[in-house]
């Protein structure tokens, strides 16, 4: 998502470790664009990026029971990659709540809180610059 290495000694401070740098942004739809690869130039579905970020955040949980198994991770990512995913409903779409830390992104997709535009709301020149 970010296009960054997991550990980058060329960067300074918290940005050296991708997890430490990105984790605060993964659960916030309004801030997620700050960690997205600038080479994407905002041309990605924001809802799909948030779902991918949510599953990444779940994988980072300190509590092993809260981490998704790889079958669930793969299934979620395949649904996002599918060209039909924009037109077909996801599993559990009739639910109304969404907890990105403890719930599977396969559940609770139709929450009013989960409605987002299809791409980053900011033009590329307004996005947070990152030193590469």
UniProtKB/TrEMBL annotation:
InterPro entries: Kinase-like_dom_sf, Plant_Ser_Thr_Prot_Kinase
Keywords of the record: Kinase, Transferase
GO terms assigned for molecular function: kinase activity
Spans annotated as Disordered: 77-132
Keyword Kinase attributed: yes
Phosphoprotein in keyword set: no
Name of this chain's protein: Protein kinase 2B
